[in-house]
Amino acid sequence: MVYNSVLQVYKMIWDELSPLYQATEAQAMARFLIEKVTGTRFHNTIATPNSILHDDKIVELKQYISQLKLQKPIQYILGETEFFGIRLMVNENVLIPRPETEELVDWIIKTNRHPSPFILDIGTGSGCIAITLAKNIGNAKVHAMDISSGAIAVASENAITNNTKINFIEQDILTLPYSITGSPFDIIVSNPPYIRESEKVLMRPNVLENEPELALFVNDSNPLVFYKAIANAAKRHLKSDGYIFCEINEAFGIETATIFQEMGFVDVTIRKDINGKERMVRAKKL
User: Fold this and answer.
1) Cα 131 from chain centre
2) Cβ atoms within 10 A of the Cβ of 123, count?
3) In 3-state terms, what secondary structure has residue 22?
4) Residues 10-45: pLDDT tens digits?
5) pLDDT over 70 (residue 1)
6) What is the DSSP letter of 184?
7) Which residues are paired to 168 by β-bridges?
8) Tens digit of pLDDT for each residue in 141-163?
């Protein structure tokens, strides 16, 4: 039986992936894969770099590497990802949570002043926003909706795994009912589809060929359709002094903010992400 040290395996993975991915990506993938097969955080594993991985672990790693070479996202390959310090199951029914969404969640947590807020997450996907808010805002009453039954199934499983109680609703954002369980809310948040069809040419194959188009794209002729629906819903279902938060397309920061301003919201604020892109908006209901 052949044995391989953790350092040797790390270098092997990096060498296999570096022709297809940037160096930092290949390094991160190598760390994730080693964590997956060892069940141990990489910084703990590397503390004993001469520790060995048995043949069965090497076989498992090579299976993962072969899928990565096909441009399949590592999160789908592993069936999980990390978001705001928690583990989440992900599959092709949901988007892979992004770092900018963590920034949006952080903004919500820091804005909230309610001891036990009622929160609605519109378009929950994996449940990453709803679950993180439930875990980080004490006594929050969280409701989350999505048009996809597959997404609701994933989010429900993630809520159970992370010991959070969330009321899930299967519902289309564009046809929100007049009455929603939990309304009125102190906070409404949404990360809706906002990428224009014409922007597909700018996207990487691993996103286009794997992540759900329903959660990504909007028609070029009406790119802000979801924000108009969300603003209308917030007008009906937010409490006075309640806040609506949205992740946005960086190309439409001012236009998205204007939707909320024209509907009577105040304190409308556009925020840039860590890369300096306009990716979030917050508005307050009078």
Assistant:
1) 11
2) 26
3) coil
4) 999 999 999 988 888 899 999 999 999 998 888 888
5) no
6) S
7) 144
8) 999 999 999 999 999 999 999 99
Backbone angles phi and psi of 207, in degrees to 5: -85, -50
Query: CA 20 to CA 130: how far, in whole Å?
Result: 34
Q: How many CB atoms lie within 10 A of CB 217?
A: 19
In DSSP terms, which residues pair with 35 in a beta bridge?
A: none
In this structure, which amino acid lies at residue 213? E
- Structure-token match 């929100």, residue found: 176
Cβ neighbours of 147 (radius 10 Å): 15
Name which of 95, 3, 18, 105 is nearest 55 in CA terms.
3
Q: In the structure encoding, which two tokens stand for residue 20, read together?
A: 């297809």
- Report the distance separating Cα 258 and Cα 45, nearest Å: 50
How far apart are the C-alpha atoms of 283 and 231, rounded to whole Å? 9
Tokens 């597909």 belong to residue: 200
Distance CA 124, CA 101 (A): 12
Rounded to whole angstroms, the Cα distance separating 142 from 134 reads 6
CB within 8 Å of 193: residues ≥ 6 apart:
123, 214, 215, 216, 217, 218, 226
In sign, the C-alpha dihedral spanning 85, 202, 252, 180 is negative
- CA 141 to mean position of chain CA atoms: 20
147, HSE (Cβ side, Cα atoms, 13 Å): 13
Q: What is d(CA 194, CA 192) in angstroms, rounded to the nearest whole number?
A: 6
Check the CA dihedral 13-19-24-26 and report its sign: negative
Q: H or E stretch including 156?
A: helix 149-161
Residue where the block lists tokens 């499983």 = 157
